[in-house]
Design a protein that fits this description.
heterodimer, A: 113 residues, mainly beta, 11 strands, B: mainly beta, 7-stranded mixed sheet, globular
């Protein structure tokens, strides 16, 4: 099962696009990439997920490279409320044979005025 | 937001006392999870459930037990609390859409302080 690598922190100006990178070079062909975020003192919030095609929803866009070894989460117009820790995640198999998400340390995104 | 509540939201207890945290969902999702979150460690899975009375250990299960007697409730018990179990505990639920897809939705968390 794949693990992920993210920069520990990033800065972004309010109103600009925030591009958060993630490396998952050992991802296998049927593993989805998930993005969550956690605003201070709150529970993690689901943002988006994808397999190999680019995905977009009301919160963000997910760009996955053709070789699937990396992805980028794009917040098109960052606001101060987007300041949070962003997690890029793939599934990890448990002993029971069931697979679940494993959270790393994520990227702390600071959006400034 | 997914219908997930956790109780209590805050608790202070003493070393050696038993503590039970409750997670309640209104979504009728099959899978439920307990995580703990500590500075420098991110989120770590304690136990999870894949159905009523079906549970399994996660990454950091020592000192914890769980029970799920009905779909909507997942209980986490610290039989004899220790200071190392001071943490923020999150419950999550999911309804897998396939072997490789899973979207988890998280509760608001419980802050536990063991003195």
């Amino acid at each position: 099962d794949a693990k992920t690598t993210q920069p520990p922190s990033m800065d972004c100006a309010e109103g600009r696009a925030a591009n958060l990178p993630c490396n998952h070079s050992t991802i296998s062909g049927n593993e989805y990439v998930y993005w969550y975020r956690q605003i201070h003192s709150q529970g993690p919030q689901y943002i988006i997920h994808g397999l190999k095609n680019n995905e977009t929803n009301e919160m963000a866009s997910l760009i996955i490279t053709e070789d699937r070894k990396s992805s980028t989460l794009i917040l098109p117009h960052a606001t101060l409320r987007d300041t949070a820790v962003y997690y890029c995640i793939v599934r990890v198999a448990m002993n029971s044979g069931y697979s679940t998400l494993t959270f790393g340390k994520g990227t702390m995104l600071l959006v400034s005025p | 937001d997914a219908g997930i509540t956790q109780s209590p939201r805050h608790k202070v207890t003493e070393t050696g006392t038993p503590v039970t945290l409750r997670c309640h969902q209104t979504e009728n999702h099959r899978y439920m999870y307990w995580y703990r979150q500590d500075p420098g460690h991110g989120l770590r899975l304690i136990h999870y459930s894949y159905g009523v009375k079906d549970t399994d250990k996660g990454e950091v299960s020592d000192g914890y037990s769980v029970s799920r007697s009905k779909t909507e409730d997942f209980l986490l018990t610290l039989e004899s609390a220790t200071s190392s179990q001071t943490s923020v505990y999150f419950c999550a639920i999911s309804e897998s859409t396939g072997l490789t897809q899973e979207t988890q939705y998280f509760g608001p968390g419980t802050r536990l302080l063991v003195l």
